[in-house]
Amino acid sequence: MSGYARVGILLATLVGLAAAVWAFGSTGFANVLEATARIGSGGFVLFCLYSLASFVPLGAAWLAAAPGEPGSRLCLFTWARVLREAVADLLPFSQIGGIVVGTRSLMQKGIAPTRIYASLVVDMTTEMAAQLVFTLFGLALMASILMGHDAAALRPLILGGTGIMIAVMASFFIAQRPALALAERIAGHFLPGAAGTMAGLLETLRATYADRSRVIAAFGFNLLGWIASAFGAWLALHMMDVRISVWSVLSLESLIFTLRSVAFAIPAAIGVQEAAYALAAPLFGLPAETALALSLVKRARELIIGLPTLLLWQAQEAKAVVAARLR
Prior knowledge:
Elements: H1 3-27, H2 29-37, H3 40-53, H4 55-64, H5 74-90, H6 94-107, H7 113-146, H8 155-174, H9 177-190, H10 198-210, H11 212-239, H12 246-262, H13 272-280, H14 288-326
Helix pairs in contact: 1-13, 2-14, 3-11, 3-14, 4-5, 4-7, 4-11, 5-6, 5-14, 6-7, 7-8, 7-9, 7-10, 7-11, 7-12, 9-10, 11-12, 12-13, 13-14
């Protein structure tokens, strides 16, 4: 990473921290802590367990994008997905670092590098497509919610429109060429270290996209992952004794997810998530202090899941080093 890039990330992080301080300061940190405490230790443990379970469809998406890998390796791909997220959330090198560490964990299990890289690219492509569908659904739902209760009649149309978007996106992947072109660009951008195996990678990519059922399955599992993650926020709020409709939470979370993706240069989107909750949540009838409490609960969950994950990863790395020296 160049010096300019480091300075840029540092400045972006400082701006994010300033935004977080503003969000909590303008709302009242004591009020936020009071709202956070309502979830209780039992509720927080349940939320963490649910969050861990929501990684299963994400692992299934990555596995589906790897033709030839047996279903018995679901746990392995799910672990790699959890590791990707933990590194991206807690370590300073953000998304790229998560990708590197996640793929390395699969390589250590003897999976061919070209298959890992190709499946990763297909997984990322279908994840982007699934997020697009989820975001468009959330924005359409937001319009109906903010228009008032009379807009409830529009929900069947919104759901139907979402179904059409899914069908269009599936057609996009069935067409292969545009999806493959996008996948090749992603491979060139995120996997520069794979340049030596690029020819084999592209061949594996083409073979993967030729298996349309696998690609559609990866897209479906990723979409399920987005929905499950958003539903987790509703579950957390429910355990905090906040009564808000699932539709409102899905719409709000789609906005938060989008802003976090845009702010990929800021580690863990620090400040972006908090400011977005403080500004957007009241539009859905959710007090700012409650929304920021939800943000704190999410941050705590990232630590509770991420830190043990990183410690296990380090133990695996140390074991691999020792094994290599004994050969």
